[in-house]
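Structure tokens please, single chain.
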Amino acid sequence: MTRTVRRYTKEFKQEAVNLALKSPSIIYTAKELGIPPATLHTWLNALKCQGNLASVNAASSKDMATLLMENRRLHKELAIVKEEKAILKKATYFAQHQK
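Here you go.
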């Protein structure tokens, strides 16, 4: 039984690492890209050892701050929508029982 070794370009590896850093799960990113999770972990560790991950992390930390702000805004918006829905339910109930 022969084992095939897949070769990846540097650009693909860099994009995969960027996606992994931005996504909530490295394993999920690896599955989406069709590569073994261990391979993606190896690429991440290699960049950490080289010190190149600092520049990637700086860019992703700005993205992370933006995502956190967006997440807070969406949570507030969801709370408002839930409150409005509860009010409409109560209004519907009272409108049906006033007849």
